[in-house]
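Sample 1 of the test manifest.
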Amino acid sequence: MSDITKVALDAMGGDHAPYEIVKGAVEAVNATEDIQILLTGKEEILVETLSKFKYPKERIQIVNASEVIETAEPPVMAIRRKKDSSISVAMNLVKRGEADAFISAGSSGAVLVGGQVLVGRIKGVERPPLAPLIPTAKGVSLLIDCGANVDARSSHLVQFAKMGSVYMEHVIGKKNPTVGIVNIGAEEEKGNALVKETFPLLKACKDINFIGSIEARDIPAGVADVVVCEAFVGNVILKLYEGVGSTLIKKIKSSLMASFRSKIGALLVKPTLKATLKDFDATEYGGAPLLGLNGLVVKTHGNATAKEVYNSILQCRTFKEQRINEKIRDILSATEQETKE
Amino acid sequence: MSDITKVALDAMGGDHAPYEIVKGAVEAVNATEDIQILLTGKEEILVETLSKFKYPKERIQIVNASEVIETAEPPVMAIRRKKDSSISVAMNLVKRGEADAFISAGSSGAVLVGGQVLVGRIKGVERPPLAPLIPTAKGVSLLIDCGANVDARSSHLVQFAKMGSVYMEHVIGKKNPTVGIVNIGAEEEKGNALVKETFPLLKACKDINFIGSIEARDIPAGVADVVVCEAFVGNVILKLYEGVGSTLIKKIKSSLMASFRSKIGALLVKPTLKATLKDFDATEYGGAPLLGLNGLVVKTHGNATAKEVYNSILQCRTFKEQRINEKIRDILSATEQETKE
């Protein structure tokens, strides 16, 4: 295994592509020596964008891709038809082992579909979950799954708990991370059919630190490091996080403009308030991994800037250094062993 | 039909019982002439509490109930065994037609179970939903269902949409309320099995103002007046609303105490900030109706004070005056007709 982490980067995806994407790549190769970037997208545009920056030329390579998948396109069709899109070309680099990881700020649907169809699942993984980090009072928690595949089975959720634990411990650095399942009450007998079926399976897992059911109310407080749920519920949680936060912030801002007294106060508290609110913005933690694939696939937020791209690239390096996929293979096959014994 | 609204009020339930509950009742009968309260609970305690207030004696009546259901008790068992509890006695008053409505700040589980077992459903109602009001940027929306019965069917969700529309229009006063179904994307083909099955049924309803799928992100913005979902998802939404709000508020408060500059500012913005945050606190809109029963059942928040009890009592009066249950019967049977034709 080479010590260099090779990242295939979709240079055409996202609101600020290609400039911010390319800038993030340049900052990453300038900051560290063990990263190489394969930029996929329209060659002439990328040559021109890259010409604006200084960086070690041999560490960023352009791989031409003549098509772009738009966010509004139906993802399955887009992946099937646009074989020369920046997403498909980059994912095929991962598939062929020419890159370790893939990052895109483009169409979520295409990334999710492409991850499964092009990159492919690790043997034994039933369903690859999308697992964003969400801000909490204690730091961050991993919300797993927020992907596109709804109507999950209990065996999927057990795998999510295991893969999430590996990621939280070895990429985020949280020792022996706690795992909770989202439920409508803390008692074991509560829940819908899926949760009731999954609960005893998680309880029986020796290789995770399962703390039981958690209520949605306690997620922002940071009650569990790994928050397990099926994708529909995960999607509701992720988006409501954003929605409640942004509506509340708007309300606070407009209320502070309502009186002379509060206007003066607002001037004084503005910098602090801004930093706090940013800190609690789920979109700030945009590098969500799609776990369980043959290579790392990271979906960053559509409005990602260079900083987020840079952070996602470093995340890929940790993922490779920590041999996360080997650890995922180990934890999943260990369970199979247990079941067979 | 009498013009007086008779409310059976559980005087023993909630964190501030019996004092705040009794106080709310006293304020209601002092404010309006067409309300009568039947207070259920331990007679000697209630006689003593009532003696502290001035009010028209004939309009508050004590109905002795020797037992109290604690919030930690398993609800089915509690309703079955404690036949002389303040909840059971009050619900039986509604069942026998001696009261029009029931209000409790006590055990949610017992209220939900008791509503179905003791008060009973309106003929044709498959499942009674619990429908709290949640704050939005535009005012309030009705979140239906947040009850205890999970794993709903599409026919339940259609009834929720209809009952919620009636309530929003005639109790809250929102003309031709918009109805949205919670989904993981705005497109019609998205969703889990339940949502996909329900979507065309809602689209076909002529008697509601269906606007399609809504994402959780848009709920706080007030994109739909009636937010339809099954109870598990509704519970997650309601509790995450509380959780994100309270964590964010704590973070803001502690950040404002971090520097001298922001401390001074904090003093100036405090009153405005407090009012805004209170305005956006889901627990402030605590009088959630359990719809579709033979009589109105209202669950107020566990920490309800006199003001919330007072508001819930007035809500019961509107519910009766507007003949909500007749309207629910009409809208549900109109649909049955359509289906049969």
